[in-house]
Amino acid sequence: MRRHLGSAVNPVSHRTRPSQQLKLRGITLQCNATPSPTLAPAADPLLIKAVEALFTFPPMFALAAKSARKKIVDRGASMGLDFGAEIDTLAQVDWEELVQAATDPAVAAEAAQNPRYAYYRAPFHAYHTGNLCIEAALEVNVAAKSVHATVMDPAGKVVDPE
User: Fold this and answer.
1) Cα dihedral 45, 49, 54, 55 sign
2) What element of type H or E holds 109?
3) Sequence-ordered list of residues with C-beta below 8 angstroms from that of 23, at least 6 positions apart, any chain
4) What phi and psi values does residue 54 have, to the nearest 5 degrees?
5) CA distance linking residue 138 with residue 101, whole number of Å
6) What is the pTM of this model?
7) How far apart are CA 5 and CA 39, in angstroms?
8) From the CA atom positions of the chain, what is the Rg in Å?
C-alpha cells in the first residue's frame, strides 16, 4: 500500500528530499515535497533576543497579550463564535477543586523543582502563570477555532471541517 503525503508547505519542507520514502508497518509513505521559493529567511538571532527581552517587561507583555487576545476574539466573533458564552459555560465548574483532587502532591512537587517543566509555568501568550493554567484550559477550544479556522477553510469562515 502506498500513500502520498503531497507537498504541503511546512517548516521543514526545505530539508526534505524529493520522493523520500518511509516504510511504516507495511505501509510505504512517500513525500514528494519540493523546496518552496517563498520560505522566509531565518530570523536574526539578535532580533529574536531583543523581542524576547522586550516581552520580559511586564507592561509590554500585558499590552501585547491584550492586543493579541482582542484580535483572536474579534476574529472569532466574525465567524460567529461567542467567546464569553463558551468560557462562561466551562467556568461554571469548580476546576480548582477538580484539579486539586486529581493532583498527586509528590509528582507536583517534583515537577515544580524540575527545570525541564519551567517552560510550562512561564508566562505564555496571555497567561502570566503559564500555558497549563485553568484560564488557558477554559479558552483553548474557542481560541483554537478562531486561530486555526484557515487550516480548515482558506476563507477562514468554516470552523469545523465536518
Assistant:
1) positive
2) helix 105-113
3) 29
4) -60, -40
5) 18
6) 0.60
7) 19
8) 21
